[in-house]
Design brief:
This protein has 70 residues and is of the alpha+beta class. It has one helix at residues 51-61; strands at residues 17-23, 30-36, 42-48, 67-69. Helices cover 16% and strands 34% of the residues. It has a four-stranded mixed sheet with strand order 3-2-1-4, with helices on one face.
Length: 70
């Protein structure tokens, strides 16, 4: 019943969205999400508290690298 939560792959439009991490210059807080390639708008998906969270986001998106924006 309790234990590690299951996470599946994130569904996103791979042609029109790019996985990215947004980092605050002031606080250092990081969120993972997607950038709309047409409008440039960022959509938050999850909070990144550790390298493990970032690795999980990459796994869920099926990518090895993500762009960091400020």
């Amino acid at each position: 019943m309790f234990g590690k939560k299951k996470t599946s792959k994130l569904s996103y439009d791979k042609e029109n969205e790019t996985p990215a991490v947004k980092s605050s210059i002031c606080t250092g807080e990081k969120t993972a999400g997607f950038i709309d390639n047409k409008t440039g708008k960022y959509r938050d998906v999850m909070l990144i508290k550790s390298e493990a969270d970032l690795a999980e986001f990459k796994r869920m998106c099926g990518v090895d690298e993500v762009k960091t924006i400020y």
